[in-house]
Write a structure and sequence with these properties.
The chain is α+β, with helices and mostly antiparallel strands. The protein has a single domain, classed as Translation Initiation Factor IF3 (2-Layer Sandwich), CATH 3.30.110.40. Helix content is 32%, strand content 34%. The protein is built from two helices and four strands, in the order βαβαββ. The chain is globular, with a radius of gyration of 11 Å. The two termini are 20 Å apart.
């Protein structure tokens, strides 16, 4: 199990709010730290993948449980 430095609850938020909150959280973190994001918007699946690619942050994992999507990003 990987270490999680910060958690972001984006449940109930729809695009683009999960990405905006993710961006804000990452801006407050240091390089190498990990951010766990919990979202309910299915659009977040694609959005976070694209966000990670465009920003150079690593999408370490992505899973789905009971209508929730859980992502772990590592700040570049």
């Amino acid at each position: 199990m990987q270490k999680i430095d910060r958690e972001l609850d984006a449940r109930g938020l729809v695009c683009p709010l999960p990405i905006l909150r993710t961006k804000k959280s990452l801006s407050e973190m240091t390089s190498g730290e990990t951010l766990k994001i919990i979202a309910t918007d299915p659009g977040a699946v694609i959005d976070l993948q694209v966000f990670a690619e465009q920003t150079g942050n690593s999408l370490l994992s992505m899973s789905e449980t009971d209508d929730e999507f859980i992502f772990v990003l590592q700040k570049k």
